[in-house]
Design goal:
This protein folds into two domains: about 120 residues, no CATH class; about 100 residues, no CATH class. About 35% of the residues lie in helices and about 30% in strands. The chain is built from nine helices and eleven strands. Strands 1-2-3-6-5-4 form a six-stranded antiparallel beta sheet. A five-stranded antiparallel beta sheet has the order 7-8-9-11-10. A hairpin with a 2-residue loop joins strand 2 and strand 3.
Length: about 250
């Protein structure tokens, strides 16, 4: 009899926990999917920037988490590099996340942004409160739990060896105009296709790092305000920092 009661108790305990889990499990209230040709209908003119990065599909879901309205946007891009690129040109003034330990993420009171594999995420709440930020992170962690994503790509050593406070991957004129408009003429004159832009720590200077596969003819580029170097697989460009000795030393050490 004791064994039977114990078994019944254990079974009831399991049912209670399953029900509690089901109640706590997030479910989207709505979902919309936009293909490569339909993104304009969701974000109007902003869609062209995403197309520069090989946009494939957008899934938009809405959740209500403890009274907080959260919109989750998951962008499928053509590669992990392109997912990092669109992430890099979209983030501004990242702050500390509340309960999210992910190096490839950026948090603020209204939004969580991240890139994993060839996906870029933008999770947005409507209140900007601490509860809203917690709700963002809960939705993002839920998406990571119920889906499988490849790991983020590794940056090339020619990039990681430079001490930068921020890094962008620019894959066309729209992204250059969006985050590095001062480099647009250089980009056009050298017929560049894609570059990393590194803003240096403790300096206002930045370094443009482009693949040498672009077949750039540096010797024919005579703008004396631009410092230039070619090393291994990359070319490095920096506006002459004049009195900024730190930036000069960084560039000379390349």
């Amino acid at each position: 009899m004791i064994k039977i009661i114990t078994a019944i108790t254990a079974f009831l305990y399991m049912l209670v926990n399953v029900n509690l889990f089901a109640q706590n499990e997030l479910k989207p209230n709505s979902e919309q999917v936009y293909g490569a040709d339909a993104l304009y209908g969701y974000m109007n003119g902003g869609s062209e920037l995403y197309k520069e990065y090989g946009f494939r599909k957008l899934t938009v879901q809405e959740y209500v988490v403890e009274g907080e309205l959260v919109t989750a946007e998951c962008y499928e891009m053509e590669s992990p590099l392109m997912a990092f690129g669109i992430y890099s040109v979209n983030i501004y003034k990242c702050a500390n996340c509340i309960d999210l330990n992910l190096e490839t993420s950026c948090c603020n009171p209204y939004q969580v942004q991240a890139y994993i594999g060839n996906y870029y995420f933008s999770i947005i709440n409507s209140s900007g409160s601490s509860a809203g930020q917690e709700a963002n992170e809960k939705v993002f962690k839920y998406l990571l739990r119920v889906n499988e994503y490849d790991k983020a790509f590794e940056l090339p050593s020619g990039i990681t060896e430079l001490d930068g406070k921020s890094l962008f991957y620019l894959n066309g004129e729209l992204s250059i105009a969006n985050r590095a408009s001062g480099w647009l003429n250089v980009f056009r004159q050298l017929k560049l296709e894609s570059c990393y832009l590194i803003k240096l720590n403790n300096s206002k200077a930045s370094i443009l790092v482009c693949s040498s596969n672009n077949k750039v003819k540096l010797d024919s580029y005579t703008d004396e305000t631009i410092l230039k170097k070619e090393r291994a697989d990359f070319i490095y460009l920096m506006r002459n920092p004049e009195e900024d000795d730190l930036a000069k030393n960084v560039f000379e050490a390349i």
